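Regression test case RT-17, inverse folding.

Input:
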């Protein structure tokens, strides 16, 4: 009776989606593609940058959030 609710409350919820990818890893993948001038679809998984699609979705999210607008002007190549 009441034991089902107590047992369910004791078990932490687990994420059903893919494991999260760190921002640092995504940024490294993006910078690697830009530095080597390679097609982003060719980002090698062996280098542990994870999926190029994940990196570019994260880049899009950062651009829309204005992350790069907040960088100091000394970081730009003008």
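Golden output:
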């Amino acid at each position: 009776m009441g034991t089902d609710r107590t047992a369910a409350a004791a078990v932490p919820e687990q994420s059903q989606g893919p494991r999260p990818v760190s921002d640092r890893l995504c940024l490294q993948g993006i910078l690697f593609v830009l530095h080597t001038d390679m097609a982003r679809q060719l980002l090698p998984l062996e280098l542990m940058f994870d999926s190029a699609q994940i990196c570019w979705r994260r880049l899009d999210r950062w651009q829309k959030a204005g992350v790069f607008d907040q960088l100091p002007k000394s970081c730009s190549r003008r």
